[in-house]
Each structure stands twice: as structure tokens, then as C-alpha cells.
Amino acid sequence: MKLMTCPVNGTRPVSEFVYWGEIRPMPDPDTCSDDEWAAYVFNRNGAPGVKKEWWCHTPSNTWFIAERDTEKDFVLRTYLYGDDR
Amino acid sequence: MPWRLLRFGLSKSHPEPRMFTTHDTLKPSYDVVIIGGGGHGLASAYYLARDHGITNVAVLEKGYIGGGNTGRNTTIIRSNYLTPEGVKFYDKSVQLWQDLSTEFDLNLFFSTRGHFTLAHTDSAMRTMRWRAEVNKHYGIASEVVGPEDVKRATPQMDLSCGGHAPIQGALYHAPGAVARHDAVAWGYGRGADMRGAEIHQQTAVTGIEVKGGKVVGVHTTRGFIATNKVICAVAGFTPRITDMVGIKTPIYIHPLQAMVSEPMKPWLDSILVSGSLHIYVSQSSRGELVMGASLDPYEVQSTRSTLDFPEGLSAHLLDMFPFLSHVKVVRQWAGMADMTPDFAPIMGMTPVEGFYLDSGWGTWGFKATPVCGKTMAWTVANDKPHELITGFSLDRFRNYALTGEKGAASVGH
């Protein structure tokens, strides 16, 4: 069983979590061009690497950030938004 | 064929060349370099040589021929998709499939079985009717049938699916077929090789040289090759290759797993798919049940397997066929699916001149192998997109003109 550590509820089976994709900075919709906005909406970084991703522990609805090696499927660390220090 | 066999029996050494010629060195330049020696890449090389007379072609394969998603899919061939673009494209592919064994002089075990997409809810029935009407409009054999027709084709099935997902009906697609997938790569590979294309296995691409917005060459683990045209047909490795030329795409990678049972006497003629139960299953010519479910729930760029997968899939399969409870699972594996937001491929030209994409083949690439080869070869030879792939271009995202292919397998809609 694959495990994931929720920063609030501790280590739980990964089936209790949902993955919500890599954290991507949003361009300012008022100032960016149409192409920049379309690129933000659709384009993804599909190459492997250590990525910062949104995950949610669904039973407690805890949203947090996981740093995960997407090639080895290995979670380096997890923390709540704003605790990145 | 028997005379050929006799020659093998009487000869002390192997009387025929192996499937492909092995080339010790790469040439300094090629007219076209194809990255990826799977079905799509080899079919492109085959049609470039056969239909367009372009034979100075190298197919570069990092591993071995057909060892990627060509050999990892569940071999289903069908054309009952939902969008006009998809239906026309896959129908052309199904037509090409019919003659491939003869064309290659190689038995692909192409077997037309009939394909049921089961509907367990009213909304699923509505989608089936929608798909049937689109399909019929384009002349494809596709119709909505009732539970009694499903029962007639598959008397072993529990139509109530364990009581919690009773079958309301199905979309029936008579041309639905299966084929031996690795033989498809070998057939195209041998055909391309015979016509002069070079296949280089164990040759990975490490970089692509672009000057002034044009491709000028490819760096490989065996040296540099000069070329002006590169086809990228690498399935789950696509983002790593597009990063080399600085192109951004919407492609993201999730594993898609599959498994087979131990061989049994033939009992399952049809191909069965259930979106609600996350199952597709058919019986191979070797007697194994070939089974798949749905995409893994998060991004991973490797072919690792998980235990959740056979657990979940088996539970759903037993809802349909309780008598399989003593049948063993003998193998499971995964492939890397290059997914797109609209479940349609990304094909054709790109902002980099001479760099052609055959990508975004997610969970629906095997059935398209012949038509991809054909249309990519045409696109490269004529330097403009083939009319069947204009709906699949990379710039559709920039223009918010998505294709919306909801007929794709293994994905929730």
C-alpha cells in the first residue's frame, strides 16, 4: 500500500488522497496576453522531476503541498501552504 | 508457406535474414529521423518509403522495437468514437487494419470480435445513443442494443453486475477487433527495413539541434545526425522530447495499467467495455483474458505497477463474471499514457520547422497505428497537415478550439 503523509492527520493510505496537479503561478488575467493565458490554462510540465503538487486528504478536506519525484513516485516532504521553510 | 517451413527444416543455418537488418553505424545525415521505434514510428517509416519514396530514414529506438506502449496496450481496435474528427480518423485506421496481415505476409492474428460498450445508467444510455448516431452518420456499423443482445453474445455474464450496476443496454460496434500488438511493430519494421529505412535500437536521443527556428540535427547516444525533419512518436516520453526543442504542450503523463489471466478455453467472443465498472476485457488468441481499467490517479513517469490495480479490477470483473473467481492473474504491467485535456491526439506540424509531433496518444494509440503512420508520412512528405489530422493540431489549444473526444477509453468523462 502506498502511503502519503498528511501534515495534519499523519501517514495514511494514498487512496484517501486526491492529486490536484503541479502548483503553477497564475499570470494576471488583466495584464497578460491571450497567448499567455491560453498557455496557463492548457500547458503542463509533463517531464519527470521533483515537483511541488497540490494534494488533498479527502476525509478531512486538508489541502496541502507535496514535493514528489514524479519518476520514482517518491514523496520527499509534505507541508501546509505557507509552511515552506 | 509450407514450402518455406520445409526450407527451415532442411537448412543447417537460419535460411532467412532476421526481421530487421542491424546497422553498425549511423549515417552522418538522414532525410527524416523518427524518434521512437513503436508501431507509430515504424508505420511512419513504412509509409514514407512505400507511398512517398522517402527511404533515407532512420528510426531511433531507445529500447527495443515495440517495447513501449505498442507492446503494453490491450490490443483493441475500433472506430466508434464521438467527434466527427475522431470517427473519420479511426474508421480509416480500421479499414487499413483489415489488409495488414496480407500486406506484411505476417500473421497479426487480427480478429474481428464485435465490441460492446456497456451502459449501466440512463445517462450512459444517452451517450451511447449520441455516439451511435454520430457513427451511423459517418457510415460506421454502430448501434444501441438491449440487455438481451448482450446476454446472447455473452451468456456467462451476470447482467445485474452483482446487483449494484444492472446493464441497461450497450453500444454495439461489429467491426471491433483485436490483434497481436508486438507483431504490428515487427510487420511495419520489416516492411520499412526492406524498403531501405534503417532501424537503430538501443539508440537514445539526447538532444535536438534547432537553428533559426529550424531543426538541423539530432544528438544521440551514438553520435550526431544531421537532418531537417524529425518525427517525435514516443508516447509517454513526449514531454522530454518537446523540452529539447522548447515547445510547451498540454501533455501530462499518467500510467495506464493492464493485466492478463491464465489461459482458458475460448469462451469470450466479444470485446466488453464498461465505463462505470472501469473494465475492458477480451480473450486473446492464446486464451488469456486481457484486461484493463482506468488511468492511475496521479502523474508518474515510469512503468511501475501497483497492487491496487489488480485488486480493484478483479473485484469489478467478478461483478460481471462471478465464475472467474478461481482464475489466476499471471501478469500485470503499465504503460505511460501521454494524456491531453480533450482526449484527442496532438499531431502534425509545430512552431519549430521540421519538428513533427505524433503524440497525445494517451489510452487510444494502438488502434490508430496504421492511420497515424499514413497521415504522418503524408504530412512530412508534403510539409502540410493531412486533411484527417487538421483537427488534432497543437495550436488548437491556443485558439481554444478543443476536439472533446469523449469516446476515449480508460478515462472518466
How would you characterize this protein structure?
- The complex is a heterodimer of chains A (85) and B (413).
- Chain A is mainly beta and 85 residues long.
- Chain A is 11% helix and 42% strand.
- In chain A, the strands form 2 sheets. Chain A has a 4-stranded antiparallel sheet, with no helix packed on it. Chain A has a two-stranded antiparallel ribbon with strand order 1-2.
- In chain A, β4 and β5 (62-69) form a beta hairpin.
- Chain B is α+β, with helices and mostly antiparallel strands.
- Chain B has a domain at 114-175 and 252-339: 2-Layer Sandwich (D-Amino Acid Oxidase, Chain A, domain 2), CATH 3.30.9.10.
- Chain B has helices at 2-10, 39-52, 84-104, 122-137, 147-153, 181-194, 238-245, 308-320, 369-382; strands spanning 32-35, 57-60, 76-77, 111-112, 115-119, 143-145, 169-173, 177-178, 198-200, 205-211, 214-220, 223-226, 230-232, 252-261, 271-274, 279-283, 289-295, 329-339, 346-349, 355-359.
- Chain B has an 8-stranded mixed sheet with strand order 6-7-5-15-16-17-14-18, sandwiched between helices. Chain B has a 6-stranded mixed sheet with strand order 9-2-1-13-20-19, with helices on both faces. Chain B has a 3-stranded antiparallel sheet with strand order 3-8-4, with no helix packed on it.
- In chain B, α2 runs parallel beside α6 (181-194), α2 (39-52) crosses α9 and α3 (84-104) packs across α9 (369-382).
- The N and C termini of chain B lie far apart (48 Å).
- The relative contact order of chain B is 0.19.
- The model of chain B has no long low-confidence stretch (mean pLDDT 94).
- Classes of the chains: A mainly beta (85), B alpha+beta (413).
- At the A-B interface, β3 and α1 of A face α7 of B.
